Amino acid sequence: MLTLTILFSGLGGVFKILGGVLYGSKAVFVDAMTSVANLMALLLAVRYWRDSLKPPDEDHHFGHYKLAFGGSISTLMIYSFVAGVVTLKLVELREYTVSLEAPLMAFLGVSCYLIAIAISRRLRGAFTHYSKFTVSELIEGVVVITSSLAGALLSYLIDYAGALFLTLYIFYELRDVFSEVMEYVGDRAPSPDVARTIREEFSKNNLSLGSLRLRNVDGTHYQGVATVLVSPDEDMMSLSRRVDEVKKSLRDHRVDLVVEFKLRTQEMSFEYGE
Ligand SMILES: [Zn+2]
Questions:
Q1: What is the Å distance from ligand 1's center to 67 Cα?
Q2: Is the pLDDT of residue 2 over 80?
């Protein structure tokens, strides 16, 4: 499956490079560059996604989940490089001719991507970022075919406008992926639903929850610290058993929780920094 996706993406890239380099279309050139970037990003996403699946070990006590961001971060790097290259291509504004073969090559390239997307849709998982870029490859495909065709038949300026649009689109996509990565790098707290599930789990086991601190690890896994309020006369054995019960069922919700006990006192404050 994956091999087929890579094969068709690669083939699509070859057609576009031919159209952009041999047949003079700047729009097809920009599209070709993003296709190559797309393929490289896919390969790296697969590699880091595989790494992220490993269980916790000696050098990664909290699991390897965050390694999956290696895929998104490489995507950012590769697309930033491409953005620079195509910007240089756009800076040289001289009249040029676009051959009719350019839109043909773009058409063949886009067709290959259609097949690649159809296959990669069944893969899901780590390919969210990838498939996002691939779907935009299609939007770009329509732009590149029409603008290079009009560029060959009417004026090179239409082809140039197409190239400009595609370049601006790269910057837009970069911003999108960047803010997604920052969401998790910034240790944002998960949605209130997750906290509610955790609170319910504690009260189900007759435990009084004090503070609860949570962070989103990779969009599907959460880690945190919970404080359970106890009275001096409570049975330690029963407490630990119930806490284990909570931890066990939370693990099914992909929540990895550290639980500490705190003696119930007259003045209690539940600051996040505790
Ligand atoms: Zn490790």
A1: 10
A2: no
